[in-house]
Every structure is written in structure tokens, then in C-alpha cells.
Amino acid sequence: MSAKLLLPAVLLAVAGAAGAQTSTTTTTTAPAAKTTTKSTAPALTAEQKAKLAQMNQLAAQNAERVATMVDQGKAGDVWDASSSAAKQAVTRDAFIKATSADHAKLGNVTSRKVVRVTHTYAKGDAKLPAGYYTNVVFATQFSNNKTPVRELVSFHLDSDKQWRVSGYTVH
Question: Hey, what long-range contacts does 94-102 have (CB within 8 A, 24 or more apart)?
């Protein structure tokens, strides 16, 4: 498996594949924090928009922590705190090896900016557990790359109602 498809590749397809399985997808684009809803759901109230903005900010902060841990060579700690489905999809050693290889090739992070936060509900299948997912996309500049790369941190709401990392990629 390519080092660019990390923890786990299957779960990271949520942003695209779950779109066909979602009842509602909410997207917030930084920096304007513009929110759009793709569904036949009624428009959000002001209170709901405020809650969504708060949830997006928290998701972005948590994703930043995860990405920073990877930057610091703590990919094993990220894997240890990941969802059980993510752990079943890739071994700890494979995750550490892949993230280390990507970061060695790309160099040190020089900047990281939130581009988008999305929320989806996937009905689930053999490769993707059903449930709620939040994806945070960064435009990340690395010292060995002329242009920013897409860095994605995904979270899944596990059965115990805790959000856990379900994926991480850079490409």
C-alpha cells in the first residue's frame, strides 16, 4: 500500500464514498466559515449554526493536535488513541512506518491552514463502519515541497460516543 494512504485508506474514503451514502453532509470552509448543507433538510437555525461553528472549531483544534503529534514523530500515540475500526485496518507498525516515510520525504511543516471541515453520516458497508464522521482538511506547507499538500485528519463517533481518529493522510 502506498505510504500516502495511511490510517486507514478505506476509512478516509469517507469524504467521497460516504457522499453517496449520506443523509446529510455539512461543509464549512475556512477562513470565511461558510456553511452549506447538501440534503433536503430544512435550513439551520441561528442556534444550530452557532453550535456547528463551535463543533467545527473543536474538530479543527483536535485535528491540529493529531497532525502536530505526527509532526513530532508520535504517530504511535495517534494510532493508540484511534478507533477500533482504524486499528483493524492498519497495524501500528505500518502506520508509524508510512507516516514517518511521508514526513521524511516532505520535510518539516512550515505552515498548516484549515481549508474545510465536513460532517457526514455513512450507512456503512464491509469496508466502512456506519456512523458519523468528521473530516478536517488542511493545506499544509512542508519544507521540501514547493506547494502546499492536502493533509486530512478524520474522526469517527465510536459506539461509546467518543470521537476518535479514523484516518490520517498527506498527499
Answer: 94/1, 95/6, 95/7, 97/3, 98/1, 98/3, 98/5, 98/6, 99/6, 99/7, 99/70, 99/75, 99/168, 100/73, 100/75, 101/3, 102/3, 102/4, 102/6, 102/170
Mean of the pLDDT values across residues 118-142? Answer: 92
Instruction: Identify the DSSP state of 13.
Output: T
**Higher local confidence (pLDDT), 12 or 163:** 163
Identify the pLDDT of residue 127.
Answer: 77
> Is 21 a residue whose pLDDT tops 70?
no
Q: Which three cell numbers stand for residue 126?
A: 464491509
Task: Enter the pTM of the model.
Answer: 0.78
- What does residue 110 show for φ and ψ, rounded to 5 degrees? -105, -25
